[in-house]
Amino acid sequence: MSGDKKILVTGGAGFIGTNLVNELRSRRYEVVACDLLNHELQDYIRCDVRNYRQIESVFNTFGPFDYVYHLAAEYGRWNGEDHYENLWETNVIGTKHFFKNAGEIKVQISFYKKYVFSFHKKRDFLL
C-alpha cells in the first residue's frame, strides 16, 4: 500500500527530481521534496544540502521517512571549471551530511550498483 509510505526527495525541483516527485505522488505516496530553489507547490521545502543543520531540521520536522532519494547535485562542465567549490560542497559534503544524519537516526542505506554503473559494448563509429 503506497499511501502509508513517506518519501523525501532532495533536488526535488530539478529535472529528475520533479519527474520523480510527480510519479511518486501519482502513485499516492506522501512526498516531501526539498531543494535549494524556492518552489510554490506544497510539500516543497527550501533546504541547502551543504548546511547540515538544514538537513537535520528537515528530518526532525518532516520525518521519519521510509525512503530518501538524494538527487541534489551540481553538475556540468561550467560548474566544474568555474565553480569548483560549490560543486564539491553540494555533491560531496552534502552527501556526507545525509550519511551522517542517516547514521544518527539509524536509517538503513542501500546502494544498487546497477543504477550507478552501466557497461556498454564497444562500438566502432565512422567519423
Secondary structure tally: strands: 4
Q: What number of structural domains do the residues give?
A: 1
* Total count of helical runs of at least 4 residues: 5
CATH class value: Alpha Beta
Protein name: NAD-dependent epimerase/dehydratase domain-containing protein
InterPro entries: Epimerase_deHydtase, NAD(P)-bd_dom_sf
Family: Belongs to the NAD(P)-dependent epimerase/dehydratase family.
Domain NAD-dependent epimerase/dehydratase: 7-107
Walk me through this protein's architecture:
- The protein is an alpha/beta fold.
- The chain has one domain (about 1-115): Rossmann fold.
- Helices cover about 45% and strands about 15% of the residues.
- The protein has helices spanning about 15-25, 50-60, 75-80, 85-105, 115, and strands spanning about 5-10, 30-35, 45, 65-70.
- Strands 3-2-1-4 form a 4-stranded parallel β-sheet, covered by helices on one side.
- The longest helix is centred in the last third of the chain and has 21 residues, at about 85-105.
- Belongs to the NAD(P)-dependent epimerase/dehydratase family.
- This is NAD-dependent epimerase/dehydratase domain-containing protein.
- InterPro entries: Epimerase_deHydtase (IPR001509), NAD(P)-bd_dom_sf (IPR036291).
- Pfam families: Epimerase.
